[in-house]
Design the sequence.
């Protein structure tokens, strides 16, 4: 069959491992801005990347030509790194015999049939009735935008501008490698984003809210677009009389949900095995050590329901799995992809991901979250004489080597004498991962998830983040007011 | 007709493709097709070996269809006729679902002739693969041996890219261009006991011949080492000096407030302020994509109009905004040829390509200071080597600005002890007005703006 021939060609000049990653992606996006449906765009993209590993070296080539000729050319290009000729020829057998004779294009069409999701009890998508985006009319998608625009604008006369975007993606992948693996997955994601601008005496303020899951159009059976829009508008309006955030070190309470980004930055990236193996993480050689307060149990789980970072297999064909990274404050494991796991003589943890067939896979988070604790979310605030309550976080960034990280707050309030008071203007918070994790001194039981896009080394992938309401006893807040 | 000598055969092939798409247009619709093709090599080395070697070609077409003031867009990640035809059909269909908007439409040729730019460097094509690999390997080796405090060199990357693109529309636009780019970059970790600090160096050029390996090594090395022993500073109000790379990031965020689209839709803090003093009289801000030293320079914008130079802020006075054809129509003006796109898969929008602070502020050239003079002028403050959280703590609509920083204290006009885990904050409105000095040390960094030192008074430093 064609796959075997391509893998054979990829290893013809040597090398220990070869892989074909084929992808077909269809996307639709619709944007409403300034009261008009501005852009409806759609795209189709398919191609394959061929990877050859020889010793410490990986060769990679990709092509949008999925014919056998195109794939063989890419295989040859990827094999150039192994031209030192250590390997000799090798015959490759892949998968089960049912796949004999199938072209990559045929396999892609039926990628869902290759997915372990089919037989998995933890099936994130198969159980629910899926409404594939291509079966939903564009008019229905556009209608969501109009409904959300009305809802945002009716939240208050000070709402001056509203942008709403709807995006869906239907991605089919097939992975086959020289270890004999053939696997596939059919991944559907849908996301809805509302951004509002409110104008007041002190200038403009912004609010945004999002909803997104690894599901089709049925997302809108559980998500009310009016709620998303209303929430975005409410935040922008509330910030109109926001004061500058304080400076210096203050106690901070982070509301359940978007605070998951804290863990994503404070330790998530630092627990990716590529950083560990290059000695560029502050968490290197810390397995078994206490790295966080005992209230912290942190999990990364690519099979966590139909959350934004979920999938049945990663982009190397490894099934998603639940990985406990920190158990009651003690570091238990890192996250692994195929290449880094192979170096260490272990198996991948299902964290090998790539943005598209144009990219090499690397270690990435999926859905990363803190488990519930037992504190009361209101009592956590009442104990604070002066501090900050963050209801919504924006993005963040980390230097994994030093552990210093920032995350932005996009909806925050001052806490004075145990009460949540006035709104604060946007600012970043900055801390050192290992220090901040030790300072988590209260964790509530009101777990919630949110979605984001994680960028690393030029590649973006969808990720989920989650946590219950929690408190950090002290962290530096980057405002302009004297604390 | 606008194909020039510098454009290769590839661009001509793309021109033929986009012309063909235009010929498929039906009565009552306008069509614009943009096609691009690129070839790329990426080499990463680690521990004296090639960690990864990637070669790729990538091509695709993006199509806009406008019918009765409604726009639809679709793309295909392929140059196959069948895929392109179905993208055209999709774009056509998408247009039916957009709102009618009199501002929507394609660009009209405006007769401005393109400046001839020398962006295609044939030295890239003939540069041997093995020498690219040895350049990366020797960079790593020299870095590892550069100082005993260098603990690890996690990555040294060499990459080159040659891209061609062509655009055509039923309004008579035809343009094509080709360019080459390459870069060498390195990350170094310096360490002493439990302290680890990161340094980054990068050099870009149109071919490997122009890369400055010494600079990459020196930057990665010195930036990591000088941060060793960094402490969290006390909170204070202070003057801040941005490193050229930080200024570049700041200008990139500021650019969205200068976009005619943001202005037209009430999303810029600079709206309604044309003709007013919006910044210090030291501040002159220019967008010049015809300057071929700029990373984002190009003879045409993303709608096929010839690029041109614009002074956006002159000695503190806001002169105007940037427009593509749609934002221009919305505001009753003409395009400034400032349409950009992220590749064939995105429709054009307004953006900057080559922002820079005019050293010294327009006519007063004596005000440009070299970095040493600039520090002396500042006296005491904080030198910001790098920032984090530009996307999470800076809001170009409200103007709120808050970023994580690391850098060095400035004492008596000289760089002093390193500081880390702190933030600097202000508002962008206030920052424009508090420019103390602009450096003459312009660096043509990858991105939409050049870098140069910039001193700003009265920033809030938050630490202990």
Sequence:
């Amino acid at each position: 069959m064609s796959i075997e021939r391509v893998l054979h060609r990829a290893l013809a000049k040597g090398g220990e491992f070869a892989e074909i990653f084929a992808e077909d992606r269809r996307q639709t996006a619709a944007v409403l801005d300034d009261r008009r449906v501005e852009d409806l765009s759609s795209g189709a993209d398919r191609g394959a990347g061929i990877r050859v590993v020889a010793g410490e070296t990986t060769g990679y080539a990709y092509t949008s030509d999925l014919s056998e000729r195109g794939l063989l050319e890419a295989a040859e290009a990827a094999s150039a790194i192994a031209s030192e000729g250590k390997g000799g020829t090798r015959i490759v057998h892949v998968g089960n015999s049912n796949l004999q004779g199938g072209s990559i294009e045929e396999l892609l069409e039926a990628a869902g049939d290759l997915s372990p999701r089919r037989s998995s009890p933890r099936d994130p998508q198969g159980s629910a009735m899926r409404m594939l985006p291509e079966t939903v009319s564009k008019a229905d998608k556009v209608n969501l935008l109009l409904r959300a625009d009305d809802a945002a604008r009716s939240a208050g006369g000070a709402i001056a501008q509203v942008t709403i975007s709807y995006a869906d993606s239907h991605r089919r992948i097939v992975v086959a490698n020289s270890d004999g693996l053939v696997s596939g997955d059919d991944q559907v994601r849908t996301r809805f984003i509302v951004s509002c601008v409110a104008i007041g005496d002190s200038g403009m303020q912004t609010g945004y809210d999002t909803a997104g899951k690894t599901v089709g159009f049925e997302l809108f059976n559980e998500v009310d677009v009016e709620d998303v829009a209303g929430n975005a508008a409410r935040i922008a309006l509330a910030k109109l009389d926001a004061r500058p955030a304080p400076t210096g070190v203050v106690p901070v309470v982070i509301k359940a949900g978007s605070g998951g980004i804290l863990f994503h930055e404070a330790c998530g990236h630092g627990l990716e095995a590529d950083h560990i193996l290059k000695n560029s993480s502050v968490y290197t050689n810390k397995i078994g050590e206490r790295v966080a307060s005992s209230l912290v149990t942190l999990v990364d789980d690519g099979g966590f329901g139909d959350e934004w970072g979920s999938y049945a297999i990663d982009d190397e064909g490894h099934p998603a799995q639940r990985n406990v990274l920190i158990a009651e404050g003690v570091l238990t494991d890192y996250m692994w992809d195929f290449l880094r796991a192979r170096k260490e003589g272990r198996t991948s943890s299902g964290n090998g991901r790539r943005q598209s067939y144009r990219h090499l896979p690397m270690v990435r988070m999926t859905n990363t979250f803190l488990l519930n604790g037992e504190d009361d979310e209101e009592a956590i605030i009442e104990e604070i004489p002066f501090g900050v309550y963050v209801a919504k976080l924006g993005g963040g960034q980390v230097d994994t080597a030093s552990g210093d990280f920032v995350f932005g707050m996009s909806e925050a309030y001052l806490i004075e004498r145990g009460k949540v008071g006035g709104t604060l203007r946007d600012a970043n918070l900055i801390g050192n991962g290992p220090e901040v994790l030790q300072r988590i001194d209260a964790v509530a039981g009101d777990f919630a998830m949110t979605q984001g896009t994680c960028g690393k080394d030029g590649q973006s992938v969808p990720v989920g983040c989650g946590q219950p309401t929690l408190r950090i006893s002290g962290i530096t807040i980057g405002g302009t007011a004297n604390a | 007709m606008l194909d020039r000598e510098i454009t290769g055969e590839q661009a001509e092939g793309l021109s033929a493709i986009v012309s063909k798409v235009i010929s498929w247009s039906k009565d009552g619709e306008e069509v614009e097709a943009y096609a691009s093709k690129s070839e790329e090599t990426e080499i990463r080395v680690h521990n004296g070996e090639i960690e990864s070697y990637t070669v790729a070609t990538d091509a695709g077409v993006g199509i806009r269809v406008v019918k009765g003031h409604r726009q639809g867009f679709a793309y295909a990640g392929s140059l196959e006729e069948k895929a392109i035809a179905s993208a055209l059909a999709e774009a056509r269909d998408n247009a039916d679902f957009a709102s009618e908007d009199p501002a929507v439409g394609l660009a009209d040729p405006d007769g401005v002739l393109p400046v001839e730019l020398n962006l295609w460097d044939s030295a890239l094509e003939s540069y041997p693969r093995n020498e690219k690999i040895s350049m990366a390997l020797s960079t790593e080796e020299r870095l590892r041996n550069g100082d005993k405090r260098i603990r690890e060199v996690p990555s040294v990357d060499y990459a080159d890219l040659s891209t061609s693109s062509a655009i055509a529309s039923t309004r008579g636009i035809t343009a094509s261009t080709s360019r080459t780019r390459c870069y060498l970059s390195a990350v170094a970790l310096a360490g002493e006991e439990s302290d680890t600090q990161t340094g980054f160096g990068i050099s870009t050029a149109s071919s490997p011949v122009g890369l400055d390996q010494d600079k990459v090594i020196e930057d990665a090395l010195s930036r990591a080492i000088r941060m060793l022993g960094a402490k969290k500073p006390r909170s204070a109000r202070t003057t801040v000096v941005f490193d050229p790379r930080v200024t570049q990031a700041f200008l990139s965020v500021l650019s969205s407030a200068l976009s005619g689209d943001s202005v037209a839709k009430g999303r810029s803090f600079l709206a309604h302020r044309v003709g007013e003093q919006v910044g210090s009289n030291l501040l002159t801000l220019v967008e010049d994509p015809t300057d071929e030293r700029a990373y984002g320079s190009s003879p045409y914008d993303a709608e096929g109009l010839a690029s041109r130079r614009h002074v956006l802020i002159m000695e503190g006075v806001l002169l105007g905004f940037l427009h593509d054809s749609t934002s221009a129509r919305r505001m009753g003006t003409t395009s400034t040829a400032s349409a950009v796109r992220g590749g064939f898969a995105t429709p054009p929008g307004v953006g900057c390509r080559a922002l820079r602070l005019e050293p010294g502020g327009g006519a007063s050239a004596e005000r440009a200071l070299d970095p040493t003079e600039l520090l002396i002028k500042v006296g005491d403050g904080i030198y910001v080597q790098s920032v984090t959280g530009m996307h999470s703590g800076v809001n170009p609509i409200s103007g709120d600005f808050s970023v994580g920083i690391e850098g060095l204290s400035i004492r008596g006009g000289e760089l002093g002890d390193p500081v880390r885990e702190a933030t600097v904050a202000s508002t962008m409105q206030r920052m424009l007005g508090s420019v103390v000095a602009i450096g003459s040390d312009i660096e043509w960094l990858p991105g939409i703006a050049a870098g140069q030192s910039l001193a700003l008074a009265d920033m809030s430093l938050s630490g202990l």
